[in-house]
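Hypothesis: this fold can be encoded by more than one sequence.
Test: take the structure tokens below, design a sequence, compare later.
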């Protein structure tokens, strides 16, 4: 436990830890989930009726599991799958990460 009243520079120290970075990811995801309309506007679908949710399928003995941070189920019969990432620098999608995303899409298709 940290004594925040006596430790000078504690915030600078805490903000470098893994727990803080995980918290930033959750906080950013929550901000996104509470601001669907600006996301829709940025995607150019502000005028389309949608339902927004997240998606989770638990793995079992026969199937892989998957979590998709945000689904925007559109009235024009399309679904946007959105992976929400907080990163404190430039983020680029590697070949391995692109493969993971494609696998998520495939599992979602198989599940729905």
């Amino acid at each position: 436990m940290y004594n925040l009243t006596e430790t000078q520079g504690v915030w600078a120290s805490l903000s470098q830890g893994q727990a803080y970075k995980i918290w930033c990811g959750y906080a950013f995801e929550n901000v996104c989930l509470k601001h669907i309309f600006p996301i829709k506007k940025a995607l150019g679908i502000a005028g389309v009726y949608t339902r927004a949710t997240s998606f989770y399928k638990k793995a079992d003995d026969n199937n892989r599991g998957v979590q998709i941070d945000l689904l925007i189920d559109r009235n024009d019969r399309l679904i946007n799958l959105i992976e929400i990432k907080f990163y404190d620098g430039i983020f680029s999608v590697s070949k391995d990460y692109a493969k993971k995303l494609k696998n998520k899409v495939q599992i979602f298709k198989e599940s729905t």
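Helices lie at 10-14, 18-33, 36-43, 95-111. The CA atoms of residues 54 and 70 lie 4 Å apart.
Hypothesis status: open.
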